[in-house]
């Protein structure tokens, strides 16, 4: 059975990847991450208190329009296992014996696994994982994996197609503009999309595979799996860590 881990490292990887030409069998066009908001020009006059309040209200209103990441479908961050099982039944008609439980011995988290055919239309069978935190025992992450391991008929072309469909969808969803990154090469793959909401809850779409060096210094990816994560707190996840000073 596949081990389920959290993905806090992916967020940091996006800030340290090396720039360079990249092609993924021609299926991943070059795109740029959304630019961060421009800083105010030097010498700008101080803002009056009333204007500050108006600006704060405008910022709050803008945040309200940004997509909130609260989980996946009916399963919401903070739910306990019984509530998540009920959500899986509602969303997929999942029978109790079709849901598998798994514990992570190093992170001391607990997961529920379920195979969902055509989670993405014509996308093949995917494996869903619902991860419960070490201390909270509540839902902290939902993951989706497409691969040969989840569907024997899966192909690299299908993985590319799934990745492109999902990336286009997320780009239209309205995440925080300065949190969005696309087509970022990392070790063993490409982060096709990453975006966050005002509470720093994140969506990460990772196409994994093997790179080959081709003509014109291009690195071509042959994908082996597509991973999608909805993460409540990628920077400080609720997993077991040894307290300082014990060893």
Topology:
Layout: H1 8-13, H2 49-65, E1 71-72, E2 75-76, H3 81-92, E3 100-104, E4 109-116, E5 126-132, E6 139-147, H4 156-171, E7 181-186, E8 189-196, E9 202-213, E10 219-231
Described by strand count, sense and barrel closure, the largest sheet is:
8 strands, antiparallel
What class would the helix/strand composition place it in? alpha+beta
Q: What's the total count of β strands?
A: 10
Distance between the termini: 31 Å
- Tell me the domain tally: 1
Provide structural commentary.
The chain has 247 residues and is α+β, with helices and mostly antiparallel strands. The chain has one domain. 21% of the residues lie in helices and 29% in strands. It contains 4 helices and 10 strands. It has an 8-stranded antiparallel sheet. A two-stranded antiparallel ribbon has the order 1-2. The longest helix has 17 residues, at 49-65. It is globular, with a radius of gyration of 20 Å. The model is unreliable at 8-49 (pLDDT under 50).
């Amino acid at each position: 059975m596949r081990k389920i881990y959290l993905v806090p490292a992916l967020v940091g990887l996006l800030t340290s990847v090396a720039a360079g030409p990249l092609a993924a069998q021609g299926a991943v066009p070059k795109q740029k991450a959304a630019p961060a908001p421009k800083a105010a020009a030097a010498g700008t006059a101080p803002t009056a208190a009333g204007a500050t309040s108006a600006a704060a209200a405008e910022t709050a209103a803008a945040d309200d329009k940004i997509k909130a990441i609260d989980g996946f479908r009916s399963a919401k961050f903070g739910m306990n296992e019984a509530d998540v099982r009920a959500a899986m039944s509602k969303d997929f008609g999942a029978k109790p014996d079709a849901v598998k439980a798994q514990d992570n011995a190093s992170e001391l988290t607990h997961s529920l696994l379920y195979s969902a055919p055509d989670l993405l239309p014509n996308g093949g069978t995917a494996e869903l994982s619902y991860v419960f935190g070490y201390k909270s025992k509540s839902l902290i992450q939902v993951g989706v994996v497409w691969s040969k391991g989840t569907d024997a008929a899966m192909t690299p072309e299908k993985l590319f197609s799934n990745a492109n469909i999902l990336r286009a969808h997320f780009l239209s969803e309205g995440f925080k503009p300065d949190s969005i990154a696309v087509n970022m090469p990392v070790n063993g793959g490409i982060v096709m999309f990453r975006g966050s909401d005002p509470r720093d809850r994140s969506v990460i779409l990772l196409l994994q595979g093997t790179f080959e060096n081709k003509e014109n210094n291009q690195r071509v990816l042959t994908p082996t799996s597509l991973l999608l994560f909805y993460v409540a707190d990628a920077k400080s996840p609720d997993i077991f860590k040894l307290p300082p000073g014990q060893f």
